[in-house]
Write a structure and sequence with these properties.
disordered C terminus; about 170 residues; about 50% helix; five-stranded parallel β-sheet
């Protein structure tokens, strides 16, 4: 007889799940028995990932927007009856986030809005759902850049990732 997965009966909301590490996490969490809300700014990508996992549910979210984040958690909780795991993975690293000497303020602020404010908003509006269930897990995804830095490029991205890894 097959043993239940480590996440059997758990509800996981994964941001940035339309591709890359987020999509991989959605697949793995589903294989371990979780119900997964696949959230991404690109709804088509989220739907593609959700269609390939058991009981996947796609939601479009802009993690830099308070109302969008609230709507994501409301939709996931309504669909699944609660939330147990926040997997805050959404992030951007655009080409115009370059060295400190070349990066314009709008690029810095765009990266910070998604990569820093996004984690704040996902925790702020997601943790109350965990508390309703008596606890849960918050996973804020960082990057190797948090440890080694990138002095000549990705200045905004590097600053944000270093803050998340501490």
């Amino acid at each position: 007889m097959e043993r239940p997965g480590r996440l059997e009966g758990k509800v996981c909301v994964i941001t940035g799940a339309g591709g890359g590490m987020g999509a991989d996490a959605a697949q793995l969490f589903s294989e371990e028995g979780a119900q997964v809300c696949v959230a991404d700014v690109n709804l088509e990508a989220a739907e593609q990932v959700a269609s390939g996992i058991r009981d996947g549910f796609a939601v479009q979210v802009d993690v830099a927007d308070e109302d969008s984040v609230q709507a994501m958690y409301d939709a996931a909780a309504e669909r699944y009856g609660g939330i147990d795991v926040l997997y805050n993975n959404a992030g951007i690293s655009p080409a115009d986030d370059d060295s400190i000497l070349d990066t314009e303020l709008d690029a810095w602020e765009r990266v910070q809005a998604v990569n820093t404010r996004g984690v704040f908003l996902c925790c702020k509006y997601g943790i109350p759902y965990l508390l309703k269930r008596g606890g849960g897990s918050v996973i804020n995804v960082a990057s190797f850049v948090a440890l080694v830095g990138a002095a000549d490029s990705q200045i905004s991205y590097t600053a944000r990732k270093a803050r998340c890894s501490r």
